[in-house]
Amino acid sequence: MHTNLFSGLDILEENVHLPYGNTKEDCDAYEKAMEDYQVDVQLLGIGGNGHIGFNEPGTAFEETTHIVELQERTRKDNARFFDNDINQVPTHAITMGIATIMKSNKVLLVATGENKADAVKAMIEGVPSVDCPASALQNHKDVVVILDTAAASKLTK
Fold it and tell me: I want to staple 97 with a disulfide (CB 3.0 to 4.6 A). Which of 63, 73, 75, 157 is the partner?
């Protein structure tokens, strides 16, 4: 995140809060630390299977920061960041839970590519369901979704 995002933004390090670690204690510590902050803008992408953060399909909307086993599709989609070698892609990750994400003042979700079109449609036009974790955002007070034409290609409304 520092290399690919924050280094290009005018943001102070003390205003960046990312979960880090691989234990339940790390998750609990992050949630405890976040009690002292209000997230102004939550920047998200969406996975081809509808995940946000790494909240894979099946994640309860009430879930807070947790360790998740990444689904095969997520690992394949992220292999591009690991020399296209799925064997180098982690099998588990720490992620802000959907409940934690929903506490933010504003959500900005960006999606590009036809491989995201089904997930975008489920997120925007589907009934909120754990089958598409991003659909929880329908219940957020302030969401901005930025799509390219390909990611928006299956929207009908």
Answer: 63
Q: Pick from 26, 116, 39: which is nearest to 74 by CA?
A: 116
How buried is 103 (Cβ within 10 angstroms: 0-12 exposed, 13-18 middle, 19+ buried)? middle
- 């991003």: which residue's tokens? 134
Token reading at 48: 């081809």
Q: Rounded to an integer, what distance in angstroms lies between the CA atom of residue 135 and that of residue 142?
A: 14
pTM for this predicted structure: 0.89
Distance CA 136, CA 52 (A): 10
> 68 forms bridges with which residues in the sheet?
93
Give per-residue pLDDT as tens, 42-56: 999 999 999 999 999
